[in-house]
Structures are given as structure tokens and as C-alpha cells.
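Retry 2 of 3 after timeout on previous attempt. Resubmitting C-alpha cells to design endpoint.
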């Protein structure tokens, strides 16, 4: 028993876990990245082994959670197994992953607003980023949302867990309803799934392109390790929650990809033709998945999917803000961040919340163009956390003579290295701007580490 700090039920933790796995990207990447790169079948081929990989890595997280039930997650496990330098490196880049996903979802909120009738927030045009216009009205919406989430994350975990659970149910329910409607609708045809693979890239290259984004796609299940001391249930049950969240997350990505390719407007016979012309539509129908919802259920389908997507935006913002707060608080407790981060309370240090909010508020000034950069750096940060946790589990298991867990940890470590190579190699997906962001974050981390020496 852990007294008054035990505040999270299994449903709360599932909401936090599944809600952070699925953000707004699950509603736009099928059309923006997955289908153009790999096609419907290629995307599924990339997602299935990624799900298996995440299940293996989840086993390592549960193994370490049982042995080190304190706050800190991958950072704590790395600190215990590899020392302060590696612990800081892991925590700092996992923190980048969590924090970058807050503005990513906040920016997505303005994208939804832009597609609504009236475009009332498209005021105060100031500049363009890679051809995408930035309006101060939309920036204000994102910044206000970040500030409100920051205030929410100063409250107790039980309230946040309850909110996440409700939003996660709305998220999953909306996706399932639209998928069922698409599969039974007379307006959809399985023949529309052809070509099964992208015609713009090679089959293997396309599949590996999608596979390389999977750390980003599934990051969030690991945030469960940051709340261990607040569980109302045995830690062993955490694996069941992670498995459920990962399988549901994989299901959402696959269903959204299939629906996008199957439900085409009249006059289009292939998803490739439609994706090339989607920008000619108005409002939310510019987003192919929302257009598909309109094809199978009309405006009701669009409203259902908007509710689901909006829930995904909120769960992503809340979940990753909370995860970033807990991670940086744990680093400060271990004196691996300057003392300033410990000020303002033990449970929810105000200065940590302020720091995350300030960093997050930069994202909206780059608009939708910045979403791809954030996906890149979040993917790399997630791979770092997965790799270090797998190594820690492998090391601890070796000391205990647990050969099965050693093997699972080794597999998780190899997979994490593969993810990193796919992202960082010269033919990888990282954009120059992503490297710049990584450089800035790495420099800031070096300064902080120098300050604590």
C-alpha cells in the first residue's frame, strides 16, 4: 500500500496510456505519410511488426517497474543501470519526445479550426513557413490551449486520469463507428485499396519509411512507468494495460488507413488519384480521412470524427504534458537538473510546468509545417527511451539469471537501434530543421548538465 498517493485506477491508467499513443497524427498521417510512402498493405506490413516490437519493449518496462517502482520511468532505469551521465542523456531526450508532442497536438487544434466554416481564427497573417500561412489568431488558440493544459497539470492525477479515460473512450468510439460504417457502406469498395503498395516509392523503402516512424506512433505506452507510485492495482497488471493500449493503438492506425483508402468521393477509382487532388476540396474534406467519414455517414460522420480527433488532441496534450512534468521532476529530485526545477512543490513543481509550457508555446509559431519536424524528433527521443530501458532490463535480468528477459531486452535494444538508424542515416526521414531542433535541445541539455556538475 502507498497511502494517499494511490489515486489511479486501471481505467485511469489505460486512458492515460492509450490517450497518449493516439494523437491527431493518427487522423492525418495515413493520407500525409503512410499511404503515399507504402500504400494500404505496405502500411499494415509496417505496423504489425512494430506492434510486436512495442509489446516486447513493454515487457521490459513492466520488468523494471516491478524492480524500481519510483517515479522516473526510462530515466530512472538508466540511472540505476548505467549511471548519471547516461541517465541524464536518456531523460533529456525522452523529455524532448514528450514535450515536443504537446505543441504538435496544440497546432493540430488550429488545423481543425482552419477547416471549420467561417475560418474565424485566420486573422493577423504575419508570415509563411514553407508555404503555410501563420495567423496570430490561430497561434493564440494553440497558446491558450497549452496554458490551460498547464494549469490542469498542476492538479491531482486522479482528476487528470478521469478526464483522460473519458476522452480516450470518445476517441476509440469515434474511430470504430466510422470504420464499421465504411466497411458496410454501399459507397465504399475494397477494390479502392488498389494499388496495395505505393507507386511512388519502392515496396521495401516505403515499408521501412513507415516503420521508422513507429516509435513516435506508439510512444505513450511507456508513460505508465511515470505513475507507478500512484497505482491502485498490482504493478504486474500494468503489462495487461500496456498490451491493450498498444493493440488498440495499432488498430486505430490500420483502420484509419483502410478507411482513408476505401471511402473515395464519386469520380475517383484509386486512392492515389484522390490524394493528389484532396487539396481542391474545402473545409475538413481537404483531410482525406474526414472526407471518407463524409462519404460513409454524411455530416454526422464528420462530426463524429471531429469529436474523436479533438479528443485525441486533448489526450495527447494532457498526457504528454503530465509525462514531461513527472519526468523532469524526477530528474530534479535526483539532482540531474538545476535546483530551479525543484521549486514550487514536490508533486507538481510549478517551475517544471512553466518550463514545459514555455517550450511548448514555440511550436505554434511554425504551423502545420512544423508537425513533420516534431514527428522526427519525437521518434528519435522515443527510440532512445526504448533502447535504454531494454538495456537496463537486460542488465538486471542477467544479474538475476533470467534468460528469457535477457533475450527480450536484447531484442528490444536491437529494435531501438534499428529505429534510430532508420531515422538518422543520410537516406532517413529527418529534415534539416529536425537536426537543428535536436542540436538546440542538445546544447541546452549540455548547459544544464554543466550547471549541476
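Retry 2 succeeded. Sequence:
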Amino acid at each position: 500500500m502507498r497511502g494517499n498517493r494511490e489515486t489511479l485506477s486501471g481505467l485511469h491508467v489505460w486512458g492515460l496510456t492509450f490517450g497518449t499513443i493516439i494523437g491527431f497524427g493518427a487522423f492525418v498521417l495515413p493520407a500525409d505519410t503512410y499511404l503515399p510512402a507504402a500504400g494500404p498493405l505496405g502500411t499494415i506490413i509496417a505496423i504489425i511488426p512494430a506492434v510486436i516490437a512495442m509489446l516486447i519493449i513493454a515487457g521490459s518496462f513492466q520488468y523494471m517497474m516491478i524492480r524500481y517502482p519510483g517515479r522516473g520511468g526510462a530515466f530512472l532505469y538508466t540511472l540505476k543501470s548505467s549511471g548519471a551521465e547516461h541517465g541524464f542523456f536518456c531523460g533529456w531526450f525522452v523529455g524532448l519526445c514528450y514535450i515536443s508532442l504537446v505543441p504538435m497536438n496544440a497546432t493540430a487544434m488550429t488545423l481543425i479550426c482552419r477547416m471549420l466554416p467561417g475560418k474565424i481564427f485566420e486573422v493577423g497573417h504575419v508570415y509563411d513557413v514553407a508555404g503555410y500561412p501563420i495567423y496570430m489568431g490561430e497561434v493564440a488558440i494553440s497558446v491558450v490551449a497549452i496554458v490551460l493544459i498547464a494549469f490542469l497539470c498542476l492538479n491531482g492525477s486522479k482528476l487528470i486520469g478521469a478526464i483522460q479515460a473519458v476522452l480516450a473512450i470518445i476517441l476509440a468510439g469515434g474511430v470504430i463507428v466510422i470504420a464499421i460504417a465504411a466497411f458496410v457502406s454501399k459507397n465504399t469498395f475494397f477494390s479502392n485499396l488498389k494499388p496495395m503498395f505505393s507507386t511512388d516509392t519502392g515496396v521495401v523503402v516505403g515499408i521501412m519509411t513507415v516503420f521508422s516512424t513507429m516509435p513516435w506512433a506508439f510512444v505513450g505506452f511507456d508513460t505508465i512507468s511515470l505513475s507507478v507510485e500512484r497505482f491502485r492495482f498490482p504493478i504486474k497488471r500494468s503489462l495487461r494495460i500496456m498490451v491493450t493500449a498498444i493493440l488498440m493503438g495499432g488498430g486505430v492506425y490500420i483502420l484509419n488507413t483502410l478507411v482513408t483508402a476505401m471511402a473515395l468521393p464519386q469520380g475517383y477509382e484509386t486512392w492515389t488519384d484522390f490524394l493528389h487532388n484532396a487539396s481542391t476540396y474545402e473545409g475538413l474534406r481537404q483531410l482525406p480521412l474526414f472526407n471518407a467519414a463524409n462519404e460513409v455517414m454524411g455530416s454526422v460522420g464528420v462530426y463524429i470524427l471531429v469529436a474523436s480527433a479533438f479528443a485525441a488532441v486533448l489526450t495527447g496534450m494532457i498526457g504528454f504534458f503530465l509525462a514531461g512534468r513527472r519526468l523532469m521532476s524526477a530528474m530534479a529530485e535526483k539532482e540531474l537538473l538545476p535546483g530551479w526545477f525543484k521549486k514550487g512543490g514536490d508533486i507538481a513543481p510549478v517551475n517544471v510546468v512553466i518550463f514545459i509550457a514555455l517550450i511548448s508555446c514555440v511550436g505554434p509559431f511554425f504551423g502545420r509545417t512544423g508537425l513533420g519536424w516534431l514527428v522526427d524528433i519525437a521518434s528519435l527521443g522515443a527510440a532512445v527511451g526504448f533502447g535504454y530501458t531494454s538495456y537496463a532490463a537486460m542488465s538486471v535480468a542477467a544479474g538475476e539469471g533470467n534468460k528469457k528477459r535477457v533475450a527480450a531486452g536484447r531484442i528490444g535494444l536491437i529494435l531501438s537501434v534499428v529505429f534510430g538508424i532508420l531515422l538518422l542515416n543520410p537516406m532517413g526521414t529527418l529534415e534539416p530543421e529536425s537536426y537543428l531542433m535536436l542540436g538546440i535541445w542538445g546544447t541546452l541539455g549540455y548547459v544544464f548538465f554543466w550547471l549541476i556538475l
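Attempt log closed. The domain at 3-452 is CATH 1.20.1740.10 (Amino acid/polyamine transporter I).
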